[in-house]
Design a protein that fits this description.
By secondary structure, the protein is of the alpha/beta class. It contains twelve helices and ten strands. Helix 5 links the parallel strand 5 and strand 6. The longest helix is centred in the C-terminal third of the chain and has 19 residues. The radius of gyration is 21 Å and the shape is globular. The two termini are 17 Å apart.
């Protein structure tokens, strides 16, 4: 018999003993739209309703505490919550790190963020930044833990030294397989921080259990943690499809299924690219199902143009959790496009997360290694596989000490 899952927020709300160390201390909450309880009450409202807690501030990450900002580099302002009368500070506005004035409003920061399990997802960078600020100012941080919906698998190059950015919080692979609570402990060890840190652990989370393999399907409702994270399939594919943000190809923004496409473009033959992928590395296509389709974005890249696309299906009978490798799958799509269209301008040269002197695709991957492999006519899938396996094995060994749920 499986134990019903409880997220960190639900345990904190249900257990006065867990809350006892917070008595008399000023609390702040870092949250977004998916920060909800089991009955879908937002964590801010649920915590504010407890008479034994004193909530004095809240923070919102990228896209805002309400998740209203659609795209990257669209900032959120500070404001006063109209219901609770407390300041809501933006950590994706004038600042990315909490200022001294912001830190003066609380003693303990409760972090309740639903992550996607991918290094580029900026909520983990925000976690790093608040841990560093807390260490510098003597504040406490409690992570109210939530599932990693992509589960425990690991994939991708480790971010190289010097490639840190807002989409690269540290030397992690693209798909890291940790929860936010586990990541916090890893950051503290990695950065040698002296900070009062606690994880309010989940109970009943089984990251290897079907059918969710990380997300408790049938037990908890999916709420978009950011506007273009609409479902579990997207979360599973994201470690690959997010690379499209650094390309001229569409990731499906402006459709109802963003970031579930290997690419979309009006001038590429999707069926021909799929055939090229199958010829190059058929074993990299295992674990999910690819389908040729068409879409017309209502905004973003190719707005109003009919695009051919390849959509990933990582659900139902087509999904094999252990075999599915979205980072390799997306890399293979790039390679197939480069082979079929040698002069196609795949790489998008634009300001990405306030970085203007390095290509976005390299920032996303934490080095130029993936792009160089795609652009090298002599480089094969076996070459990429051999290059990345060492990073993946090293991370599996390193993260072992930080696993809470086994």
């Amino acid at each position: 018999m499986t134990t019903p899952i409880q997220f960190g927020i639900d345990r904190l709300l249900a257990d006065p003993e867990l809350r006892r160390p917070l008595a008399g201390r000023r609390l702040a909450l870092l949250a977004h739209p998916a920060s909800v309880t089991a009955d879908l009450t937002h964590s801010l409202d649920a915590l504010a309703a407890l008479p034994d807690l004193q909530l004095t501030a809240a923070f919102g990450p990228q896209h805002g505490i309400k998740g209203d900002k659609q795209d990257n580099m669209v900032e959120s302002p500070d404001f006063v919550d109209p219901l609770h009368g407390i300041p809501i500070f933006s950590l994706y506005g004038e600042v990315r790190r909490p200022t001294a004035a912001m830190l003066d409003t609380f003693d303990v920061l409760l972090v309740d963020l639903q992550d996607l399990g991918c290094r580029i997802y900026t909520f983990i960078t925000t976690l790093r930044y608040v841990l560093e600020a807390a260490a510098a100012h003597g504040k406490s941080v409690w992570v109210l833990d939530r599932p990693n919906p992509a589960g425990r698998p690991v994939e991708g190059f480790t971010l190289r030294a010097g490639w840190e950015s807002f989409v690269g919080a540290g030397p992690l692979p693209m798909r890291h397989g940790l929860t936010m609570g586990e990541l916090g402990a890893w950051f503290i060890a990695q950065l040698q921080l002296d900070v009062d840190y606690r994880v309010v652990e989940m109970t009943g989370w089984q990251p290897d259990a079907a059918p969710g393999y990380g997300w408790p399907l049938g037990e908890r409702t999916w709420i978009n943690p950011s506007p273009n994270a609409p479902n579990l399939s997207m979360a599973r594919a994201y470690a690959g499809t997010v690379m499209l943000e650094g390309t001229t190809l569409s990731e499906g923004r402006g459709t109802t299924r963003p970031l579930e496409f290997l690419f979309g473009a009006p001038d590429i033959d999707a069926a021909a690219v799929l055939a090229e992928m199958q010829a190059l590395a058929p074993d990299w296509l295992v674990g999910g199902k690819l389908r040729v389709c068409w879409f017309e974005p209502t905004f973003h890249k190719f707005h109003g143009q009919l695009c051919q696309a390849l959509q990933i299906h990582s659900e139902g009978p087509y999904y094999d959790h252990a075999a599915f490798r979205p980072w390799r799958l997306q890399a293979l799509a790039f390679k197939a496009i480069r082979r079929r269209y040698p002069d196609y301008p795949i790489w998008r040269d634009f300001g990405y997360e306030y970085e203007f002197d390095r290509l976005a695709i390299d920032l996303i991957n934490g080095s130029p290694l993936l792009r160089e492999w795609v652009d090298d006519p002599a480089a094969t899938p076996a070459d990429l596989d051999a290059a990345v396996r060492g990073d993946e094995a090293a991370w599996l060994a390193e993260r072992e000490a930080f696993l809470i749920y086994r």
